[in-house]
Amino acid sequence: MRNNLIFAFVLFLFLVSRIYKITGIPVSVYWDEASIGYNAYSIATDLKDEWGDKLPLHFRAFGEFKLPVYIYSVAVFVKAIGLNEHAVRLPAVLYSLGTLIVVYLLVRKITKNEGIAILSGFILSFSPWFFIFSRTGYEVTAGLFFFFLATYLFLLIDRSKYLLLVSMVGFVLSFYSYNSFRIIIPIWLAILFVYRFHNLNALRKNWLPILISVLLFGLSLIPVYRLYKYDAGGARFAQVEITSKTDFIKNYFSHFSSKFLFTTGDTNPRSQIPGHGQLYWFELPLILVGVFAILRSKRMLYLIPLVILLLAPIPAALTKESPHALRALLAAPSFSIISAFGAFYLKDNFKKFGVIIFTTVVVAYYLSFELYIQDFITKYPTQSAGAWQYEYKQIFEKQRSGIVTDKYAQPYIFALYYLKYPPEKFRGEVKLNPVSNWGFSKVVSFDGFQFTSK
Predict the structure, then answer these.
(1) CA–CA dist 401, 415 (Å, integer)
(2) Bridge partners, residue 241, by sequence
(3) pLDDT tens for each residue of 98-128
(4) First-to-final CA distance of the chain
(5) Which GO MF term does the entry hold, naming one (predicted)?
């Protein structure tokens, strides 16, 4: 009962910090949030996306083909409360809350230790890496939740072999939430299947759910194949992918550099508060001790957070923009779990100072997060306004026609979003430029608006 109350309090703190001023900080939606919101609005209106495709599995959007899970989640909120920042961002809060809960359950399953499980959730809720993404309209939050949920369910198949099917549904939903998981999940599934079904006896006992699961995952690949084969879905990736193995290695290890982790973090203001690392400096010894504790334990399941951490940077390392906090977000829960392992290893092996060590860790996280939040509330809105394309909010909350510069990228989607423009009317009026070499198409005009680079 006591542990449940403690964890409930952790969840309460998480919700308060994520919901507080959720529509005002960041100061506006950025172009992907506007696109997600408007496509959700369009789906909620007539079951078609902004371009008229009915209930698509890939949303064409700007030409980069957004994935469906988060958009359909937002559509539910749009239907209930209308098109606004709450509808766009609250699903990310709820998916992130779900991630917190599933991480707790997963760690408890792995360790049989309630304390490590609660501390993992506590650390993740205060993680600078996780914070901004868990209160803004990022699709990755859905992918993160379903990834950990599916992993947790996979570990429960001893209770019922048919939980494997439910687990596979979770992996497919993650696969259709964010592109990074399209790279990670096949690798992770291979690791899990080798771990669980490495002998013929296990294969024979579970052959039917294994077969159905493999078929289910195979079927989920068909729309992806069609996208890349027939719909030019690879155009965007072709522009951002690396060109050599050396670049991959350099990009991969950049995610473990002290500069990225502890000093400057991701330099994109939409991903991190300027001047803050992805982690706190004092976490370094906890992480090192945590890795030592995991390896020393020689328990196979203890390796799960470490293996996930090693997989996390792979999608980002394949692109030119590295290190990249968003594409490597899977690392945030992994670091949190490893840090919790480290804290409990110190507590258990230095019993004389155990209470002091544990109290120091908890207080350090709390105070560090308080300072982080202060910067987020007082400095971040001004520092990041341009990155969140605040200029377009100012324009389209006042302007309903005229010539608008596309200097800040894709102004048409902000006009549609802020004006709640009828989707069917937009489809009948819109005029387009050809798709750019980045895989994006630009709207030339609709209604009384004209968009120009001048």
Answers:
(1) 9
(2) 319
(3) 999 999 999 999 999 999 999 999 999 999 9
(4) 64
(5) pentosyltransferase activity
